[in-house]
Amino acid sequence: MKNFGDAFILCGGKSRRMGFDKSMLKIEDDFVIDTMRSKLEEAFDQVRLCAHDRGKFASFGMNIVEDVHKGNFGPAAAIHAALSNACSRYVFVVAVDMPLLDINHINHMKQTLEVMVEKGQNPHALIPKCGEFSEVLYAFYSVDALGAFEEHLKKQSYKIRDILAELDVAYMPHEESCSFDPSLKMFTNLNYVEDLKKIDQ
User: CB count, 10 Å around CB of 108?
Assistant: First the structure.
């Protein structure tokens, strides 16, 4: 299994704060999913969707993997699905409400992981920091982390921070990400209707 190649767009969530399904957002008449796929295809061999319901996204013409653990498990179930269907040792996952992703930054994360692997370090994840916050839905995860996700979900434990606490996680410093974009716009989450204004800023 090669180290890199897979990226997954996570399309779960109930979009309560947005008021409508965020996975169907459009930017200038283009679906966010299509825009994100085009960007990610610059860096990955294949880009797939993780979703609760495969049929909902059939019109996008993308390969879709469904959550194995269905219910109120949140993004932990989506990451589990991505790792369960991985064709590379590390997979990049990003939430569908983070459309401003930066491919140069993602490639830098990939290169950072490559160096770590060459040195014999094999972290279960590489997660960038944004201030004190960890961007767990804009991160690389190793298939070696699958067992921990499976164990927690079986116990109905779905908090990602609890799962990560049991893993060897590498964090990319806030300042390192700032070197690509001081505003860290890449980590913008579209949670509310007013957040859509951030896209044009």
Answer: 17
- pTM recorded for the entire structure: 0.90
- Residues 122, 1 contacting (CB under 8 angstroms): no
Expressed in angstroms, the distance from the first to the final Cα of the chain is 41
Q: Please, what's the b/e burial string for 51-73 (b: 16 or more CB within 10 A of its CB; e: otherwise)? A: bbeeeebeebebebbbbebeeeb
The tens digit of pLDDT for each residue in 148-184 reads: 999 999 999 889 999 999 999 999 999 999 999 999 9
11 and 23 Cβ atoms separated by less than 8 Å: yes
Do the beta carbons of residue 135 and residue 128 sit within 8 Å? Answer: yes
Given the structure tokens 């990939």, which residue do they identify? 110
Please give the sequence-ordered ranges of beta strands (E in DSSP) within 11-159, or none if there are none: 26-27, 30-31, 46-51, 64-66, 90-95, 125-130, 133-134, 138-142
Residue carrying the six token digits 């993602």: 106
Question: Tens of pLDDT along 60-91?
Answer: 888 899 888 776 778 999 999 999 999 999 99
